[in-house]
């Protein structure tokens, strides 16, 4: 089996990155894996071999609007040059939106099987705006063309059932549970920052992650607990606006923007609390990593948090409930026992839901095989 993957994750082209290593492992499931990454300009290599039988290609488009069409041209060439077979090979799209549109066009020309993945929650009432409105339209058409669909949670599967007749597989994101639980912190955040209580959030800095709300929560918490601080791990287009918000609230000494980290586990292992305020998530990998590290969590009911019990596994509040977030965090600052209780329960709950690497890879291969077996003519 040969697989053509359409993705928007530029980290695949970053040598040594976690996602690059994961793609290399996926290559062990197939004869060849070819990955097209939607990207702008010439900021990333045009082509890179990232595994013994895994190749990644950047579209390096002139502008974002041209990414999907460039991916189609590149995909058609790869399918032809690498001699993909209609009988055994397939295309898999990381999302049903821009990547999905490109995948459908390549499928139409090549007659290959198509698997569509869903990692975010387009069914959320907060999945709004003109761009997301267009994405929803594209997704409906993409999902109708799919031979199989793979979602990262049961909640997403429920939403998908009315949009596709294809078989839907639920396969959460692969997490190295043992690696997280058994790793030791290489440093302590309390040695780096002057705060007694360290809150941590980790995500792309985009509007749907609601990081500005978290900053406002911190401002309220510090009215009673002046020793509280916030570390924001991640990068994205909202960083400038968020930094201005920090300044306007006089929180410059209480918030640290640290970007993406090569060693995120040391952050998870030595913070005091993980906070997530997203309007929507498909899964919530950072929450899982925090939970496996033993951190208590305060979150909105998104992604895997929908499967948690409020007050037992985590504190869970609506996205704009600042009173709830401040109250929950204040309770955890004052109550060491409650922090330990939530952290332990969450770690056990997540452990019961996660798949081991071998089982995950086996189910991934099964999902690809389903697409080929169920291929629409």
Total strands: the figure is 14
Level of helix content? 40-55%
* Gap from first CA to last CA: 19 Å
Mass-distribution shape: globular
Largest sheet: 8 strands, mixed
The tally of helices reads 14
Q: Which percent range describes the beta-strand content?
A: 15-25%
Mean pLDDT across all amino acids: 93
Q: How do the SSEs run, as a string of H and E?
A: EHEEEHEHEHEHEHHEHEHEHEHEEHHH
Topology of this structure?
Blueprint: E1 2-7, H1 18-27, E2 32-37, E3 47-51, E4 54-58, H2 67-81, E5 90-93, H3 98-110, E6 113-118, H4 130-145, E7 148-151, H5 154-160, E8 167-170, H6 177-182, H7 189-192, E9 197-202, H8 211-221, E10 228-233, H9 239-248, E11 255-257, H10 264-270, E12 273-276, H11 285-292, E13 297-299, E14 315-316, H12 322-334, H13 336-353, H14 357-373
Parallel strand pairs: 1-2, 1-5, 2-4, 5-6, 6-7, 7-8, 9-10, 9-12, 10-11, 12-13, 13-14
Antiparallel strand pairs: 3-4
Helix pairs in contact: 2-3, 3-4, 8-12, 12-13
Question: What are the defining features of this structure?
Answer:
single chain; 6-stranded parallel β-sheet; 41% helix; alpha/beta; 17% strand; 8-stranded mixed β-sheet; 377 residues
């Amino acid at each position: 089996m040969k697989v053509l993957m359409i993705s928007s994750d530029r980290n695949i082209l970053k040598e040594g990155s976690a996602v690059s290593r994961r793609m290399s492992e996926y290559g062990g499931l197939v004869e060849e894996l070819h990955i097209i990454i939607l990207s702008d300009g010439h900021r990333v290599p045009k082509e890179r071999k990232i595994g013994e039988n895994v190749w990644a290609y950047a579209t390096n488009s002139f502008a974002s609007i041209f990414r999907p069409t460039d991916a189609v041209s590149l995909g058609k060439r790869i399918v032809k040059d690498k001699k993909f077979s209609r009988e055994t090979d397939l295309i898999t799209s990381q999302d049903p939106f821009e990547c999905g549109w490109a995948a459908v066009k390549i499928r139409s020309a090549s007659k290959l099987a198509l698997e569509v993945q869903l990692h975010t929650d387009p069914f959320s009432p907060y999945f709004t705006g003109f761009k997301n409105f267009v994405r929803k339209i594209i997704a409906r058409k993409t999902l109708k063309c799919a031979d199989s669909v793979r979602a990262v949670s049961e909640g997403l599967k429920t939403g998908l059932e009315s949009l596709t007749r294809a078989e839907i597989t639920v396969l959460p994101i692969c997490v190295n549970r043992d690696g997280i639980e058994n790793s030791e912190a290489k440093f302590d955040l309390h040695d780096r920052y002057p705060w007694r209580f360290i809150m941590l959030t980790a995500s792309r800095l985009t509007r749907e992650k609601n990081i500005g709300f978290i900053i406002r929560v911190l401002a309220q918490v510090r009215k009673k607990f002046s020793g509280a601080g916030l570390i924001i791990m991640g990068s994205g287009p909202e960083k400038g606006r968020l930094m201005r918000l920090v300044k306007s609230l006089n929180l410059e000494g209480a918030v640290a923007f640290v970007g993406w980290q090569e060693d995120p586990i040391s952050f998870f292992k030595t913070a005091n609390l993980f906070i997530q305020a997203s309007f929507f998530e498909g899964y919530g990998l950072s929450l899982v990593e925090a939970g496996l590290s033993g951190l208590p969590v305060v979150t909105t009911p998104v992604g895997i948090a929908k499967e948690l019990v409020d007050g037992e596994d985590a504190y869970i509040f609506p996205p704009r409930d600042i009173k709830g977030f401040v109250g929950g965090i204040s309770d955890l600052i004052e109550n060491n026992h409650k922090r330990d209780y939530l952290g332990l329960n969450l770690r056990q709950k997540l452990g019961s839901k996660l798949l081991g690497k071998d089982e995950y890879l086996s189910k991934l291969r099964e999902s690809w095989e389903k697409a080929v077996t169920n291929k629409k003519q």
